Amino acid sequence: MADLTKLTASGLAGKIASGEATAVEVTEAHLARIDAVDEKVHAFLHVDREGALAQARAVDDKRARGEKLGPLAGVPLALKDIFTTKGVPTTVGSKILEGWIPPYDATLVTRLKAADVVILGKTNMDEFAMGSSTENSAFGPTGNPWDLTRIPGGSGGGSSASLASFQAPLAIGTDTGGSIRQPAAVTGTVGVKPTYGGVSRYGMVAFSSSLDQGGPCARTVLDAALLHEAIAGHDPLDSTSIDAPVPPVVEAARNGSVRGMRVGVVKEFAGEGYQAGVMQRFNESVELLRELGAEVVELSCPSFDKALAAYYLIAPSECSSNLARFDGLRYGLRTGDDGSRSAEDVTALTRAAGFGPEVKRRIMLGTYALSSGYYDAYYGSAQKVRTLISRDFQRAFEQVDVLVSPTTPTTAFPIGERVDDPMAMYLADLCTIPSNLAGNAAMSLPCGLAPEDGLPVGLQIVAPAMADDRLYKVGAAVEAAFIDKWGHPLLEEAPSL
């Protein structure tokens, strides 16, 4: 039998459905791969071996009884450690929640289980999803399988690395300012930020509530679409959830085409700070879109230049509010409670010990921006910029069907290179942040390797809110054309571990 860990999620699902492989065999193959390589990669914070095998056995039992199974039944998945999972540790990459066992499942987890997806375990991440490199994890960094000395992106670097190292065929990430798309770009995988409210946030530990969005990560566009369909849909437990039908993402992924579509190129996403090889691969992708029958239109979205500044006022402000609940009194870490200190002192000591430097930095920034006398000047002004960005998108989508850009200005940078330079780190999300501020849908997929360093480059596709199917229609067409050009999926080129 072919190496089960190298197959796509849809390929594995087909083998399980036909009886060529059992769900237990598929799960055991991936657990063995984790055992073999994750000591080097550090994609996982917790591997739920017993739970995964129990889920796999349940799938095999259902198939033996002739019960109807979903399109992804028995397929393994790596879950970002930001979703509450009943009976399984959920740390959000932070010491302040180390060892915490949630008593309930997030809605996304409930839907994965209902779809008979096998959850292998929880993946590493920047603490509370604050970062672009997974170096801010309290439990150590994750390596990029293309080059273990480089970052796998962030905050969801564990999920992207699990895909690129063939430890899982599917993964879940969250995207607050690019934390699904940026890791996908630098690891040569596919990552999708659904329309805000398209996937339930109930049970997802909040960083910035108006920006956070869970979404699918995979090695192919079709696999991402199948996972998207499994987790999306209205949730009455989430007040931000959209009560509307899920866009036909799987159908779009199976019928990829750009012929007759208008594709916009945003001129603000180029220039100083962009790696030459990244721009070369992006320009080649634009030419490919023309060859496939799309009309390419250059557009200007002037407010996008202010997106980074607006984001780093809005996100820290919401972080300051959301993280106030971690006080050492109700759950998680508690430090200094020896009977001689007040509750306020215990809270202060707990937060000092439990939060890492980047989390503290953003809490302080947000608290300052929300303080009396500065609210209108900082947070209020940032929200006005957010409105301008949304209007720029609205005007752009009156002229084109989708927008395209590089996903990241550079390829994966070396671990440690930007740790002491927050501004350089924040620039990694330059192209992805506008879509979070506006709430529309966006995807990153591989578009080749940069000639300077041989590392993956990502192409970003952006669609209007609730037009997520356009991402998959365009993405599938581009992916098929690149595979024809390369003769293989990009990830077959990744060095073995």
Automatic annotation (TrEMBL):
Catalytic activity: L-glutamyl-tRNA(Gln) + L-glutamine + ATP + H2O = L-glutaminyl-tRNA(Gln) + L-glutamate + ADP + phosphate + H(+)
Active site, renumbered: 80, 155, 179
Pfam families: Amidase
Domain Amidase: 25-471
Keywords, ordered alphabetically: ATP-binding, Ligase, Nucleotide-binding, Protein biosynthesis, Transferase
Subunit structure: Heterotrimer of A, B and C subunits.
General function of this protein: Allows the formation of correctly charged Gln-tRNA(Gln) through the transamidation of misacylated Glu-tRNA(Gln) in organisms which lack glutaminyl-tRNA synthetase. The reaction takes place in the presence of glutamine and ATP through an activated gamma-phospho-Glu-tRNA(Gln).
PANTHER family linked: GLUTAMYL-TRNA(GLN) AMIDOTRANSFERASE SUBUNIT A, TRANSAMIDASE
Protein name (record): Glutamyl-tRNA(Gln) amidotransferase subunit A
Native organism: Streptomyces sparsogenes DSM 40356
